[in-house]
Write a structure and sequence with these properties.
The complex is a heterodimer. Helix content of chain A is 86%, strand content 0%. The relative contact order of chain A is 0.15. By secondary structure, chain B is of the alpha/beta class. Chain B is built from eight helices and ten strands. In chain B, a hairpin with a 2-residue loop joins strand 5 and strand 6. Chain B is globular. At the A-B interface, helix 1, helix 3 and helix 4 of A face helix 4 and helix 5 of B.
């Protein structure tokens, strides 16, 4: 466990020293939310109607910006060999990297979501459900993205391939994330959708750990 | 392209370079005979210690390759490689670029599965005990494995904790390579040679049984090469093993060398 903890602390420290990646994700998210009213017109009703979908879609796209770096930096400086040669479980190390990634990109997105929701005129009553859905959904994005990032490691132009690989897997998160907020807006119980998001997350943890670790081993050959 | 047998040939006895710290300290517990390098049939005289077959004690560690073959991108790089390395012995890998030196190191580390044959540690195929084997490896690749934004000490402490070692090991490694004063400097501010020193310091700090070093003297000055030699000698004196891909003569006595033929 100490190896996974060391990886988590190191990645957080690296993100702190070089916050550009996290800030890019955040800036993209905020800018997209600000641009949207310009594109569709400032009518409050129209904006409120699409707000949930826009917040979620922008969160997905923003998170895509950060995956290429997840393993790429370690690959470039050779640290990946140290991870592969650690006697600790590579799966645990992968999960630690996913957690660090979520803390540095997913969590800031959740914190910025109220701002985006306000700009898009989402009814304030739906905000708690939106945040809860994002809290359950964004870790899944980090985990699914890690599989893609590990798979394209070492591939030429991997950054181009990565979104194509990962985006289809985002669909369930998007569907249930939006459905939870829509249900809340319609006065229905959002619980079922949130539970499904939680179920997807529970499934993503082992799948990402095993899948990304296997892809990293392949890349290390 | 048809696979081709390379015949790694045994190198002659390796003469310790003048100015080598102390060949006594390089001090294999062995009788310092001529180099034992191996290719093909087991021509080796069996060492008495090994003949007892006591693979139990750490001092009797033995690394062996049997009929080892390596394929990269569907092309055989080498095949039919046999060698044996005992505790306190170092093996040099020589040969032109692309001849398979780095690939052999990755095979020995267990990072790359062999296309043929097996790598054995104390007679046991490493493919069957990957985690135990990883714990033995002190790895120095072509890259220095230092995160540019982290200070040297932070980099080394991270590497040590990946292997369950304490933070004081990092300090020991940095001191051994003469980097104590630079411990707090981010890796990106250092010269290439200093980063290479730090990477060697990391290997020293990891305190592993088997050192696998890929061109360790890359970008090193004479002083740092001397320190590398001392560290390597101390490692061997403790009963460690080392396999070193290198183009220059290292200031340690080698048990032998494998010369790779040019890549087809």
């Amino acid at each position: 466990m100490s190896a996974a903890r060391a990886v988590l602390l190191r990645d957080l420290r690296l993100a702190w020293r070089n916050p550009l990646a996290s800030l890019t994700v955040l800036a993209f998210f905020a800018m997209a939310a600000i641009l949207f009213p310009f594109a569709v017109g400032p009518e409050p009703q129209l904006l409120a109607r699409v707000a949930t979908g826009v917040v979620w879609t922008m969160a997905l796209l923003a998170s895509l910006l950060s995956f290429e770096r997840l393993f790429q930096l370690d690959h470039e400086d050779g640290s990946i060999d140290l991870l592969l040669l650690s006697p600790a479980s590579l799966e645990a190390i992968v999960l630690a990297k996913c957690l660090a990634h979520w803390l540095t990109t997913g969590l800031p997105l959740i914190l910025a979501a109220p701002l985006a929701a306000t700009i898009l005129n989402l009814p304030a009553g739906a905000l708690p459900t939106l945040l809860l859905a994002l809290a359950l959904g964004t870790p899944s994005l980090s985990l699914v993205g890690a599989i893609g990032a590990a798979l394209v490691l070492g591939a030429r132009r991997g950054g181009v391939l990565l979104p194509l690989l990962v985006m289809p897997l985002y669909v369930p998160v998007l569907v249930f994330g939006v459905a939870a907020v829509e249900a809340d807006l319609a006065g229905l119980d959002a619980r079922a959708h949130l539970l499904l998001l939680g179920a997807f997350l529970s499934g993503a943890v082992p799948v990402a750990a095993i899948g990304a670790a296997a892809a990293l081993r392949q890349a290390g050959e | 392209m048809a696979p081709r047998d390379i015949a790694p040939r045994a190198a002659g006895p390796c003469v310790p370079r003048r100015g080598f710290p102390d060949s006594g300290r390089a001090g294999n517990s062995r009788d310092g005979g001529p180099a034992r390098a191996w290719a093909g049939p087991p021509l080796l005289p069996t060492h008495p210690r090994e003949a007892r077959g006591s693979a139990m004690t750490a001092a009797a560690d033995r690394l062996a390759a049997t009929a080892l073959g390596c394929a990269r991108g569907g092309r055989l790089v080498f095949r039919g490689l046999d060698f044996e390395l005992g505790a306190g012995e170092a093996l040099a890998l020589r040969g032109p670029n692309g001849s398979g030196k780095s690939s052999l190191l990755r095979l020995l580390a267990g990072l790359l599965p062999p296309a043929e044959g097996a790598v054995r540690w104390n007679g046991e195929d490493i493919a069957g005990a990957r985690e135990a084997h990883r714990a033995r490896i002190g790895w120095l690749g072509m890259q220095d494995a230092l995160a540019p934004a982290l200070a040297l000490a932070e980099n080394l402490r991270f590497a040590a904790s990946l292997r369950g070692a304490g933070p004081d090991a990092a300090r020991r490694g940095l001191d051994a390579m003469g980097l104590g004063a630079l411990a707090g400097v981010p890796a990106r501010r250092l010269s290439q040679g200093q980063r290479r020193r730090a990477a060697i310091a990391r290997v020293i700090a990891e305190d592993a049984r088997l050192w696998l070093l890929d061109e360790p003297t890359l970008a090193l000055d004479d002083e740092a090469t001397g320190r590398l030699g001392e560290a390597l000698a101390a490692h061997l004196a403790r009963g460690g093993l080392a396999v070193v891909a290198t183009h220059v003569d290292l200031p340690v006595r080698l048990a032998g060398a494998i010369d790779f033929a040019a890549a087809p």
